[in-house]
Amino acid sequence: MASPLLKIKDLSLKVAETKILHDIDLQVERKQIVGIVGESGSGKSLTALSVMQLLPKVCKLGGLIEFDGKDLLNMSEKSMCSLRGNEIGMVFQEPMTALNPVKTIGEQISEGIRWHTNVSRAEAEERARHMLDRVGLPSSKYPLDRYPHELSGGQRQRVVIAIATALNPKLLIADEPTTALDVVLQAQILDLLKELVADNDMALILISHDLGVVADVADDITVMRKGVVEETGPTVQVLKEQKHPYTAQLAKASVHIPAWQNRAQKPAAEPLLQINELNKTYNGRRTGFVSRAPDFTAVNNVSFSIANGRSVGLVGRSGCGKSTLARMILGLSKPTNGAIQFDGKVTTDLDDNAMRASRRHMQVVFQDPYGSFNPRKTVEWLVAEPLFLEDENLTRNQKRERIAGALTEVGLQADAMKKYPHEFSGGQRQRIAIARALITRPKLIVADEPVSALDVSIRAQVLDLLAKLNDDLGIAFLFITHDLSVARAITHEVMVMDEGKIVEQGRTADILDNPQTQAAQMLVDATPDLQQAIERRSANN
Amino acid sequence: MAYYIVRRLLIVLLTLWVASVIIFAMLQVIPGDPAQLMLGINATDDSIAALRSQLGLDVPLLQRYLNWMSGMMVGDFGYSYTYGAAVGSLIAERVVVSLPLALIALTLSTVIAIPVGIFTASRRGTATDTTAMAITQVGIAIPNFWFAILLVYIFAISFRLVPAGGFPGWDTGLWPALKSLLLPAIALALPQAAILSRVTRSALLDTMAEDYIRTARAKGLTAQHVLWHHALRNALIPVLTILGLQFAFLLAGTIIIENVFYLPGLGRLVFQSIQRLDLMVVQSVVVLLVASVILINFLVDLAYAWADPRLRREG
């Protein structure tokens, strides 16, 4: 049997005296797709960067990495440079920052071609144009002189893929290539990667935290945790049998549905939040002295209501206007026209002072548990912040009690208030964010992608917590998400938003099982479904 | 792009106008009557009144401002009685010293700082880097007038390579004139270069940690190539900002340095005029200095747009 294209044996990685990767074994055959799955900190990205030899200098590697018969760990930097981009290409997670903002996409694609092949500039540009066509950015619409900022996230990821595959490498490494994209784009990019790999006889290492993504694509799968390979084998077998307890745990967490009693409750008569014909229009940007791009309507004539204690999902692709809508509800941005009525008051006419009472009853949890806290403040200060919205002045002890209460409610110890945000994990921080939202006893919490930055097992816990808060405290939720599995897990109703409009709304199960509009259909189809993927793949085998 | 430039230009004009109003107003509230001061305490009320009307001080404030502005538009900066000369010609004489001095200093500081920044950034953590950064630390800490005196002591007095002070005039030839500007320019430039090289270094290091640098490395480009072709232009944006800000400090520095080196420049002119309460001169020179700072920052704005295509499309 021929030797594998990539062979990793007993790979270890140390930073100072701390071992981060432990005896990693991994094999990739020619033309094979290997999925690496793991939660954050599992070492899956570091393994990929070890193959590329692009680790920070403090990392010390041991063991063996053999690519196409060559020993990469003992290779000179010069030979590595001629390998990178030429025989091994890599695609990264964050398309918004993966391209140099001051260089055109044409320069960035043709640069690698010229570096490795010595072809003329004109020929390299011709090949760059061809690559753009190939990744779905036809050069008639996306000429080479476009800058990255003129493209959307999905388009930029296509450019990164064009760069990585321009020289037809033997191995493509894609590190969470779709995590930052919405589900529809994710499906498109995964299809593109599959096509490229099949057409050009490439092997692919697909790294993801999402079992559903890998299940659909990979021939073999490797499950990692904390720098150790837990299990490896053919994808269908590994995921169907789920012999390894950690694999089983991951699979279970990724389809987790919280125990939630409130599911069938009837909506109350009086709506808590009532949105009437809400619009938000942004002026087009200037294109000359008098000319402007056409105005952009981010939210277009949206009306809906949320009853007390109900949990409502707002789903849609990125850029569909869901965050703009949320900002208007929270009073963070003024609608162009239309009315928002909350708790019996029309908040759209209120000034900041008059908004206080409404703000107290309406809190928010954001997506990023890292960026939404001031790192120099203690948890006590952070959680207590919304208390200024209370009418009465609380004493220090009363405040402490409220903080301790909120922290206990979200499953943290009361003495967590003495610590700083960096002392907590991502999941714990999201609990702190929820505690901060809870402290004023709100009637509505607007949660903007509250679990999409979290690992699946933590995500399951946070979903449980949110379900419990809805059950125990009767808090209404507006969940903004592009992830239908979140909507399915924890909402009574769901609204599908597309290009500023709400195109479909109704009971969650009805909409998700039987979408009527094309927008909803696309979302449902694109959402990775682990169970379905396993069934489909085993049927094919 | 055209829109961007025109918009910046309008901002330049607006800033200039606001600055002229502020300068004019500030000089009005300075205590002391210039006519009185010029004629001494024994002057009669009549002669003071006569001089006031000659200086144009007897008309209402707004009229005085308009006269001053409309005069400057046509190059008439007024007449200085303490110097007994037109302010315009006083300034013209001085500009030929101060402008070359500032430009040489600015060029010198850029030419030193950017290579040092690139060099140290590409050798981060090595002994070279640490030593260079320690030197820049000292450079920032040393006041430029003290450094100027040190330079004079070494190069003018000990080695007699350049004159210790004074300016022979451009008509004595390019080299003698340049020679007398050399030490003051170095004294002005080095502390600025120290700051600028640290900024360049840290901007480059920040840029080298960006995702797109990793993308470029994954293409197979060498670390050096990535530094020059991908990181540098991105890192220039904060460097340009500091450069624009430094120019104002450079002009302020010339006032001190010109006094140390007895250079007949604008700095000395404004310093002496303030002492003599020669408002006409002070007003005009300060407006000129402000205008040059605004102009440099306009050029910095243009350089931003060159460095960063994202700025070109927005207003």
Concise summary:
Chain A is of the alpha/beta class and 541 residues long. Helix content of chain A is 37%, strand content 24%.
Average of pLDDT of chain A: 89
Task: Work out the radius of gyration of chain B.
Answer: 24 Å
> What does the overall shape of chain A look like?
globular
Largest interface: pair, residues per side: A-B, 36 and 26 residues
Share of residues in helices of chain A: 25-40%
Low-pLDDT segments of chain A = none
- CATH topology call of the largest domain in chain B: MetI-like fold
Q: Assign the CATH class of the largest domain in chain B.
A: Mainly Alpha
Derived structural class of chain B: mainly alpha
List the main descriptive attributes of the protein structure presented here.
heterodimer; A: 541 residues; alpha/beta; Rossmann fold; six-stranded mixed β-sheet; 20 strands; globular; B: 315 residues; mainly alpha; MetI-like fold; 2 domains; two-stranded antiparallel sheet; 13 helices; 2 strands
Protein model, in words:
The complex is a heterodimer of chains A (541) and B (315). With 541 residues, chain A is α/β, with parallel strands linked by helices. Chain A has three domains: 249 residues, Rossmann fold; 184 residues, P-loop containing nucleotide triphosphate hydrolases (Rossmann fold); 66 residues, no CATH class. Chain A contains 19 helices and 20 strands. In chain A, helix 3 crosses helix 4. The two termini of chain A are 23 Å apart. Chain B folds into two domains: 86 residues, no CATH class; 219 residues, MetI-like (MetI-like fold, Orthogonal Bundle). A two-stranded antiparallel sheet of chain B has the order 1-2. In chain B, helix 5 runs antiparallel to helix 10, helix 7 crosses helix 10 and helix 10 packs across helix 11. The radius of gyration of chain B is 24 Å and the shape is globular. The chains are: A alpha/beta (541), B mainly alpha (315).
